[in-house]
Amino acid sequence: MKKTKKSILFSIILLLLLSSWAKAQKIQSYDSSYTINNTKYLAKYEFYLSDKDTIYNGNFELSQQFENQEDIYEYLSVDGNFIENRADEKWKLTEGSFEPTGNGYFKDYTYSYDVNGHEFMAIGNFMAGKKTGEWRLYDWQIRNSKITDTTLTATINFKDDKAEGEFLLSVENNVLKGELGADELTQGVWSFYRKDENMDRKLVKEWVFEDNILVKMRLYKEDQIDEIQIQDPYSVNLTEEKIELNNEFLKIIELKAKLYNQELLEKYKEEDKISHLYFTLLDNLELVDKTFSPITKSSIRPNISSKLNASALIEKEEDLLSEIKIKKEENLEKTISILNNPQFNIASVSTKKVAQIKNILENINKFFLKPTEEIVSLHEDGQLKFFDRDNLVEYKIDLKNESAINQVLNKDTLSANYKFQSELSFLNDDTQSNLSKLSLLMDALNKELDLMEESLKEYLSEIQKEEKLIELEEAMLAKYENIKYLADSLITGEHDNFAGIDVTKAIIDFADAELAVYSNLPSPAEKITAIESVINCFNRTEELIYTINKAPESIYKINEAYTKEVFNPYTFTNMEEKSKPPIYKAFNKLLLPGIFQNLQNLTCDNLMAYQANFKILYDEMIDVLNESNTNKMERKVKRAKTADKAAEILEMDLSF
Amino acid sequence: MRKFLLIIFLGSFFHLSAQELEPEFEDLSTNLWLSSYNKFRIAEKLYWAGEMHYRRTGSSENPFIDRMAQIYNRHGLNYVVSPNFNFTVGGVLRLNFTPQPGNTDYDPIYIEPRIWHQYLFVLPFPRFMLYNRIRIEHRWKRGSQASQDEFKFGNRWRYNFYMKIPINGTKLKPGTFYVSPSIELIMQSGQNIVGSFVEDLRLYGNIGYIASPRVSSSLGLMYTTGQNLNDPTLYRRRMIIRFSTYISLDFRKEEQKIPTIKFSD
Lengths: 656, 265
Known about the structure:
By secondary structure, chain A is α+β, with helices and mostly antiparallel strands. Among the domains of chain A are: 161-312, no CATH class; 313-460, no CATH class; 491-649, no CATH class. Chain A has 16 helices and 18 strands. In chain A, strands 1-2-3-4-5-6-7-8-9-10-11-12-13-14 form a 14-stranded antiparallel sheet, with helices on one face. In chain A, strands 15-16 form a two-stranded antiparallel sheet. The termini of chain A are far apart. Chain B has one domain (31-250): Lipocalin (Beta Barrel). Chain B starts with a helix and ends in an 8-residue tail after the last helix.
């Protein structure tokens, strides 16, 4: 027994000796610049070195003050304590900005100014490096160096470094009061108040958590309380799943609420301040962390989570969703392919039927494919398990019956008469789940899109033909105008002199007549058949004009060829004389006017023959000139009265 | 002094001559000459020239056409050396008709043969043609009294200056009217020519029309004057209406006549 007492006594003495040895380590002070995240501060702290490591121990002060580019002074200060490198006791963060205001004043040998600005302050306690107790945050406005308005007040309780217990946030007139349970899980009732003029709180909204799960949302309006139930999926095998309270969570909650309380939710959203204040609180805590965390190695901002009941997807549902995804993508591709077709888009502006199809395609995309995509997306994000699938599908797409589908497509007046052509009888089968119906709807849409595409192709082909007709008509009219222009510019009085008629008028009259015949065709189909031959005819008319334009050259060549020089032995000069005068006379008086006068009887059928006359006449006249004995021909042709008779005598293959 | 005496002498001579040889003019007689001029091309530069004149003479009662005067046949070979020069050589047979029809002292018709050759110089101008013709005729001529008159050889020296000026254009070509002023001096020499060297001075103006390179015609009025053969102081005067046709035909082979076809390009 004595031995035991001795050993305890020895141990105590040894412990005391060791602690005095420890305390005997050299405490040093630092008072100089200090860099955190590339920002320089002035620091003043106590520390000692242990194996070349700096161990904070004692008071810790950090400050920074500067004038920014807008001539506003900014400042920041941290005041805390470390014990053996761990934050301990009270810590305070102050940061703000100010600018001088008013006239300065001299006092105690100092010239001073009042300032305007704002100040943010966070105060809380650590115990052995862990947050503990109540932490308070303030943000207030400063006018003339006095606090005038507190714009933000927040308190949050910590226990063993985790947020737990009540928290409160007051921003201007809005107050959020809530509770966190163990492991920073949502708990109890989160209330949103609005302060009235007397600074009395008035309850506006509540989130009610049961077993960390948000089960209902209440909206207080005057004496009425509206309650939105957040339903769990219908299943006997529900599992609780922890989920961070962030925007994703809120979206899930919103969608869950919509499934049953669409209208109420809309009303509720008008007063949706809870989430806003919640995020404001987190933002302010994050602001504290920005400075504190590098120093204290601890984060003030809690990782608040909530819980949701989930119903895991069964294999059939997984298969259906995979199918739905593939079919939806195929349908979307088809829809976009049609909608992006430039010809389709152009036609949709001018053609009612195409505009209707466009409208239907847009409706299919908006009311069937997009919601389906949202369902698939929820599945891919692992959130579908939180919803009742039947309800979710029903909420997204009305799959009651065929008329419900048609109703969706008939929403616009443009597509009011459209009827879904594919088979939709499966919608009436109550034994099928909505996911299964959705999968079948995707098949039906696929067929419907095929039918629409086919009908559209046919219709666009008709439009193309009509457009082609319009193009051809434009080309035809351009040709017609060109004929008039060419006739006016290339055919002159010289041609009229040879012809003995107004050649320009004859050609323009012909073009006018052809155009009139075309215009009087009763149907587009007949016009499509006729127009190319009219254009060809006009092309040949242009060639005819060019031929006529060049005719004088040939005429003069013939004239020259038939002209010989004869020496006159009385005047002793050379004189011109025509060879084979009867033939030349027939050429001048009958044949040439004859082929010109043909132009008064032009048709598309005889046009080429009449054009060829010009070359034939030229060639034949040269041939006749070269014939050695044409006396008989000359005698006969003297008696010819008409062009065709003269041509027959001279054996010229001319058309009249 | 000698020179002075010579001038006085010569001056006296002329004065004396002027007193002795006073020129006199016969009454103006009138004639109508219808002429056919023909040229037949027989080679590239060679033509057969044949002229026939039908001449009538007028009286106071019946001017221009009263009685036959002459029928005139002139033939020759015309060689066109160049467009500016040609010459002709040939013969003429002129038939003269009696000046007093019914008077048996006169032969009703008697001949006057000639040999002739002429040289024609052609000067072309942009707007007209100018001709200088020298014609020399060697003739055997006698009076109309068959029993008394004998053929006597003589020469005629003719110089003709004439122009052809187109009226309705700038060139002489088919369809052209032209005016042709002409002046011809005919001198003569020979056995019986004593003082009447100037046989005729012809001032002739006519208007012609070229119907084709081969046919043209003209109508004109000619005034002539010349010394009487027997009395050089006596000047004959005539006013002659002339109508002429000018024919030229190509008698070459057909192949030679086909013109070459010309093309501008």
